[in-house]
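The data are passed on as follows:
___
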Amino acid sequence: MATDDEKGVSYNAEEFLQLFKKGAEFTQDLLKENERLRFRILQMEESFPDSGEETIVTDENRKLVERIECLERDKAEILERIAQIERENQDFAERYVEVESENNNLANLYIASYQLHSTLDFPEVLQIITEIIINLIGAEEFAILLLDEKTNELNAMATEGIAREEIPSMQMGSGIIGSVAKNGENFFVDDIEGYTRDFHNPMVCIPLKIKEHVIGLIVIYKLLVQKKTFAPVDYELFTLLAGHAATAIFSSKLYSESERKLSTIQGFIDLLTK
């Protein structure tokens, strides 16, 4: 007959065996479940090959595309800003050239005005006007006509590129030149490049006026080769010549006449005193 201790050992052994059996069964269940899950994963991988990688790649591509689009927008904005700055720089450069040209023109106008009133010698005044027309306006063939108030005729007093004898006398009010002398309005042909020299029909005709009184004309028949058209400063020069040149010519003529009269009077005085 088994003692109590033996009974206790036997009970513990059976309990241990039961626990071990349950543990083994649980382990088997875990292994089976693990195997089943591994098999399921394998099936899914076979049904959707690399699906996980594609998803990751797709997400990365989408992010890259979004980043590229953002960079493209930044690039477009930068390029537009650069283009705007270039336009502004071009405007500044053009304005700078324009201001420089205006400064040069003002300097030339000042010099021309100063030269016109720097002398009372009639031939010298005509020479100064000639130089202004050549150097500042760019004319190659032209004439300076003065009005003879006794005969009402316009006669060439100075020419450039043309013999003085070639310029015919013009009657006040007759033809383009006579009409300009009468009405005092500037005349310009419509087609400068297509103009053919005609002494009675000049390319340009500028009246020399003291207030509204015309004392003569500047008639231009040909421009220098490099001169294709008139610039704004040319019209300012024409305006200057219309007034200042007329005043200089009129003053120098009066001075020359007074000098001749004084010389004549002095001659008579010398004769009388002798």
